[in-house]
Each structure stands twice: as C-alpha cells, then as structure tokens.
Fold this sequence. Notes:
The chain is α+β, with helices and mostly antiparallel strands.
Amino acid sequence: MAELTVAAGLARGLMELAVTKGASAKLLAERSGIDPRQLHDQDNRIAFAKYVALMRAGKELCNDPALALHYGETNDLAQISVVGLISAAAETMMHAFVQINRYGRLVVEFDGGPRRFTLLRDEAGLWVVDNRQNPNEFPELTESTFARTICGPRLYGVTQLAKAVQVTHAAPAYVDEYARIYRAPVTFGAARNALLIDEAWATHRLQRQPRYAFGVLARRADALLKELEESKTIRGRVESLLLPILHTGEASMETIAAKMGLSRQTLFRKLKSEDATFEKVLDELRHRMALDYLGGKNVSVKETAYLVGFSEPAAFSRAFKRWTGSSPKEMRAAKA
C-alpha cells in the first residue's frame, strides 16, 4: 500500500500553533522528521506518519494534551489548502461539504474508500460519518477534523452546526474542552465517528468568492488531485525520487531501487507492470524538465543540460532534437 500523506500546509499550521504555545520549532522538526523547507509550499506532501509524530511532539512540548482540538478550533482551512478556498467559494453549506469530500485527500489522505465522509439518516436526523478504518490509531485527527468542521462555519454566521457528536475513542482527561469547543453532547467509545448536523444550515449561503473564482480553484484542485494520484504509481514514485538528483548525473536504476528498498529486478518488474521502463521514465522526465527550464528566460541551454543530468551540452542538444525535432537554441529563438 502506498504511503499516506498530508498537505504541507496542514503540517505547517500545526507547527506554527505549537510554537505559539511554547514549543521549540527546532525540536518539533527533529522529532517529526519534517524538514521546515518542505513546508514553504503548502501543496507539498508530508508523510502521514511524520504528521502524527509532529502532533504528538507538539502536545508534549507545549504541554497541551488537547492540541488537536485547539488546532481544529482556531485554524481556518482556507489558510492551509486550496480545499478551504473552494469551500468558501461554494454556494451553500451543503455544496461546501460536497467539495470538501471531493478534494479532501489534498488535505489529508486516509485509510478508506474514495470519500472520507458519508451522509446517513436515522430517526435522530442527518449524520456526517467519518469513514476512516482505524481512527483510534490517531484519534487526534478525529478531534481536529470535527473541531474544524464545527468551528469553521461559525466564520460564516452558522452559530451551531452539530447537535450531537459520536467518537470511537475513549474519553480523555480534557473532556471539558470537547464541551467548550463542540458545544454539543459527545458520546465516547461509540461505534462510529459521526456528527449529527442541524439541517437548517444545509442551504445557508456562503459564496464569499465569485463563481469564476470557484472554477479557477476547482481546476487547480483537480490538477493537484491528479498529481497526488499519479504519485501513488511506481512510475510516480520513481519520478519523485529522480527529481532531486537529476542534476547529479547519478540517476541510475540501482540508486532509485535502493531508495525504494527494492532490488533492481523488482523495480524493473513493477515498472513493466505499468507498461514503463526506467530508461523511458528518466528520458521523459528529462524532456519535460528541459521544456520547463527553457520555457523561462533565466536558464541557459548549458545550464539546462546540467540540470537535467547531461554532462555535455552536445549530448543534451542531440537528445532535445530527438524529443522535439529542433535544437534547444532553435526552440528558444522561435518562442522569442
């Protein structure tokens, strides 16, 4: 199974909150294994296990066992992910829920089906049910998700979304914080993680952005979702490992196989099952990156050759002509 990830924006927001509460940024990075430079782009992906380690380290270092609840209570999703911007541009609360469910993996991947939440109705009313398969392995995600789901709409005039809350984990020592933040009765040790929502708010109008903005944001989210899905393939993983070392000229199959913990033969078979070879993946990646570099104005042909792993500009020019039918200089002159 491919490694689960979270958006760098989610991890960055948590780290910033922990620091404001007294935690050392250096210790948070060391204990979680997260390089702070990875957090500069909120759309980068951070291993889910590192996010778990960050949460646990934050709780300890700032002496706040309810840190996950406080993170969900105070952090606006629009500040950490395009998903939050899309929900803010949605027409209604229910439309926002649909978009969050559609693009939720961009914020945090989970061990479940294609949709993290489902709507179920019973005699009590309409429930939003969290479909994570092993929620008690990291109940902090339930805490922060439900806190954000309940508190976020308050920014848009929704006074109280939840009428009741069910969680599968046992009651912690800080149950008073649940009552203060959720403002709804909580059942601990339940059979599911779920929110009973007040349906009166389903048609509450949001749309804090024009419809045009919603379309632009959705296209961006679709592109990110596609990238995330492709990264789960062997080919995608190989490309992600090749990119940082492409310029070194040491992008060999043996090197990448070792980074993946595989033998050369196993990597060959896995790529073959996706109708690919290592040589094809490397060649097409060099082609794509060369076009990106030459498409700008700040990188010379010689520098581009180096950046995509060629030791000689002449060899790069031959490869480029094979890829495009023209030389790098001809392509740049035509664009100019």
